[in-house]
Amino acid sequence: MDEQEFVRTVAERTGLGREEAGDLTWATLETLAHRLSPGEARDLVTELPEGLAEAVRRGTTDRIERFGHKESVQRVAERTMLREEEADRGVRTVLAVLREAISEKEFNDLMSQLGTDFSQAMKPAG
């Protein structure tokens, strides 16, 4: 999946315009990268198209931050100027599209570093 297809899919699933979906995707990937070890971030980068890989590289630090799904949503909402409900739906959507865009092994590695509340956020409501 290339970057345009990734963003188009996020836009279709969230109901956002392409530019907003692009901003949401970048903000989400950069925010989630703060949670990843440098090695895991490098592994993720190898499976993403260049533009999205750059978002992960920009968010990668030597010190892994500890925050949950709710705080990631707040961070993405602040960066994108979306309402918190839109950002929550957006973060979930970016993760779902990411699951389709990268290998199952890499997605599982990513989710293991993000933690249980991110896995819970991925489960359908109901």
Characteristics:
mainly alpha; globular
What does this structure look like?
It contains eight helices and no strands. With 126 residues, the chain is mainly alpha-helical. The mean pLDDT is 93.
Instruction: Please estimate the helix content.
Output: over 70%
User: How many beta strands in the DSSP annotation?
Assistant: 0
Strand content: under 5%
Strand count, sense and barrel status of the largest sheet are: none
Helix-strand pattern, N to C?
A: HHHHHHHH
Q: What oligomeric assembly is this protein in?
A: single chain
CA distance, first residue to last residue: 30 Å
Helix count equals 8
What number is the mean pLDDT?
A: 93
Task: Please compute the radius of gyration using only Cα atoms.
Answer: 13 Å
Low-confidence stretches: none
Helix and strand composition category: mainly alpha
User: Shape from CA axes?
Assistant: globular
Topology:
Layout: H1 3-14, H2 18-33, H3 38-47, H4 50-59, H5 69-80, H6 84-101, H7 104-114, H8 116-122
Helix pairs in contact: 1-2, 1-6, 2-4, 2-5, 2-6, 3-4, 3-7, 5-6
Concise overview:
By secondary structure, this protein is mainly alpha-helical.
